[in-house]
Amino acid sequence: MARKKAADGGGIPEWLVTFADLMSILVCFFVLIISFSIQDQEKLQVVAGSMRDAFGVLAVQKKSGVIEKDGNPEREFLKQVSTEQVESDTEYSTIDHDAYSKQGQEANTFDIEKNNIEQPDQFSLASASLKQAFSELPEITQLSDNVLVQDTEEGVNIIIVDQQGRSMFPESSKYPFEITRKAIAAMAPLLEKMPNQIRISGHTAAGVNFTNPRYGRWELSADRANVVRSILEEFGLSSDRIYSVVGKGDAEPFFPNDPYLATNQRVSILLVKEKPPVPVELKP
Q1: Running DSSP on this structure, what letter comes out for residue 67?
Q2: Strand order from edge to edge, sheet including 155-161
Q3: pLDDT tens digits for 92-123?
Q4: What range does the domain containing 130 cover?
Q5: Structural domain count of the chain
C-alpha cells in the first residue's frame, strides 16, 4: 500500500525536487567561484606572460607625475618623486666657452673632434664668398658664363672656359684676350685673402690643329697656365701661394663624352682643400 501511495503522489512534491536540484546547482556554482578566486600567482603570471607574447600585447606604464617645463608649469608639485644618483660623463667649467656659449657656463668642455656632418664646410663658404665677390666685379660679370666656381673633393675650382661662342684665348695663343686678362687680374686680390695653396692647370680640346710640329697641345696648355700664374702674381697674388703649374693637354676633358667640344679648352685655378698646419683655434 505504501508503494502505491507514493506512486499516486502521496510522497515528496515535485516542486521540492526541482528546488533541491536548483540548490545543488547553485552550491556547485559558488564552489566553482570560490575555487577560481584562490589562484596561484606564479602560475597566473606565467599564463599572462604567455598570452602577451602570443598576441603581441605590450604593457604600457605611465608616470603618475608630470614633467615641469620652464614657463609652463602643469602642477605645483610632482607625485612619487625620488632622488637618484646619476654619474655624470661630462666635464664642467666655471668659465664661458665660445663653442658652447648657448649652453651656459656648465657646458661640456671635452675636446671631441666633430664628424663630417657637424663640421662646417669651410670650402662651401669660400666658394659662396668668391661667387659673391665675382658678382660685384664688372670685369668678371661680363664673363659670367665663362668663369665658373665649383666645389670639388679637391677644393674650390675656378674655371676659365670657352663656351657660347666666346673664347678666352685666341686660337693657338698662350696670351688671353684683354677682357680675359682683366678678369684674371680682378681675381688676384680675392685669392690672396684665401689661405689655400693654388694649383693652376691648362687644358685643350681634342682635335686642335697646330702648324708648328714642335708646339702642340702640351706646350699650349702649359703656357696658358703659366701666363695665368704670371697675371695673378702681377696683380697681387704671392708667389709662395702657387703650389703647381701644369699643362694637361686634352687628357682631362671637361666633357668626357665629347672631347672635341670647345668647352674642354680651359684654365683651372684650384684652391686646394687641406688642413692648415696650425689649428685655427690655436691662439699664441
Answers
A1: -
A2: 147-151, 155-161, 266-272, 198-203, 242-247
A3: 445 555 555 545 444 555 555 555 544 445 56
A4: 122-272
A5: 1
